[in-house]
Structure formats: structure tokens, C-alpha cells
Amino acid sequence: LELLGSLLWATNTRPDIQFYVSWLCQFMQKPRLEHYNGGLAILSYLNHTKHLGLRYSAHHGEDLEVYTDASWGRHPRDFCGHAILFGGAAISFASKRIRLVTQSSQEAEIYGYTYAAKDLRFIHQLLQFLGHAIQFPTRVCTDSSAAVPWIRNPGTTARTRHYDKFLMYGREQFLNNESVPTWIPSKDQCADIFTKCEDKSLFLKFRGKLLNCV
């Protein structure tokens, strides 16, 4: 438990381990040897990448970038995650289990989009409080071609009429011109790092977008 507590503290500045630590935290009630070894493996990885961290620079521009993703059918409970980038690194990120049983990948993606939209509204308010001029609407990037038209277009269908009000949050934000859902290919979706285990090449690519040398 002390090991996981230390790793949770490390996730404040290391988004690249967020998913793996969240996964291990599921077993805190009855941890086994393989979970302990997994925690040690993360510690070893952190030791070998001590040069990485969150460093912000005005040279990267002042626009917000938002990426959101969700996994569906990979785990007993699906994961969703998002990252908000500003100044060349992540300023907010999360990896969490979806609280309900989603019936399609579209529903899982919209659930993840809603979490990202809530976080984005807070970042908007924070930057405005600090006197930063925000360019509206902010692009929220998802690799789900099914979720984008549902968020953009009002109304429901037989497949989506069971969605609760929580999932309408992203649509409301779009209608208020605060954000706009944008499709991107999966190879450019850096939020994938928060929902599943990636192969080494993609992991390093996405890590390079979230972190930099300090």
C-alpha cells in the first residue's frame, strides 16, 4: 500500500504512468505478489526516466489542446482518459474506470469526452482568472468517428435514447461554443496512453507529446 501511495504521488507530474498506477490501485484491497512486482517495475521505469517531467514554454503557443479516449471491451470495466496540453506539456490529465457498463464503443467514448469537457471548463475558468485570453472554441480531439456527429447534432435515436443527462454535458459545451469535437486518427491520439497498454513505439510517441526533458 505504501508503494502504491508513492506511485500515486508520482502521477502528479508523470502522466505516462497514470494508467498503470490506476490499474494496480484496483487490487489494493487484496494485493498479490504480481501486483507488488508491477509496482516495482514502474519504480524502475521512473528511475531510468528521471530526466522527464512537465516543462512549459511560451514557444509552443498559448492554445489549449485536448485529447480524449476510451477503451471498450478490453477490461471488465472500461477505462477512459484525457489530457489537456498547454505550453508544450500536459497541464491536466486523468485515467479512470467508467462507472457504468457501456453497451458500445460510442457510449464509452462519449463518457470519456464528458469527463474531458468537465475538466476543460475548469481550465477555461482558471486561465480566465489568471488573465489569459482564450481562443474559443477549444478543439477536443477524439478518434471515435461515431461520437463526433452525436455530440454535434441535437436529438436522440433508438440507440442513444438511454443516455443520461451526464452524457449531454459535452453537447451543451459544443452548443455554447466552448469546445468543438474533432476527429483524429488513432495514431495521433495521445490519450490512448491513459486507457490501454500501448506498444513501445506508440508509447514513446505519445509520451513525447505529454512530457519533455527538465
Features of this protein?
214 residues, alpha/beta
The dominant shape is globular
Overall pLDDT confidence: 87
Over all CA atoms, what is the radius of gyration?
18 Å
Major sheet: order of its strands? 4-3-2-5-6
Q: How helical, in percent, are the residues?
A: 25-40%
What would you call the quaternary organization? Answer: single chain
Q: The biggest beta sheet, please? A: 5 strands, mixed
Structural category is alpha/beta
Could you tell me the strand content as a percent range? 15-25%
Polypeptide structure, described:
- With 214 residues, the protein is α/β, with parallel strands linked by helices.
- It has helices spanning 2-10, 18-25, 33-48, 105-129, 147-152, 169-175, 200-210; strands at residues 52-53, 65-70, 79-86, 89-97, 138-142, 179-183, 212-213.
- It has a 5-stranded mixed β-sheet. The chain has a two-stranded antiparallel ribbon with strand order 1-7.
- Strand 3 and strand 4 form a beta hairpin.
- The chain is globular, with a radius of gyration of 18 Å.
- The model has no long low-confidence stretch (mean pLDDT 87).
Summarize the structure.
Helix content is 38%, strand content 17%. By secondary structure, the protein is of the alpha/beta class.
Topology:
Layout: H1 2-10, H2 18-25, H3 33-48, E1 52-53, E2 65-70, E3 79-86, E4 89-97, H4 105-129, E5 138-142, H5 147-152, H6 169-175, E6 179-183, H7 200-210, E7 212-213
Parallel strand pairs: 2-5, 5-6
Antiparallel strand pairs: 1-7, 2-3, 3-4
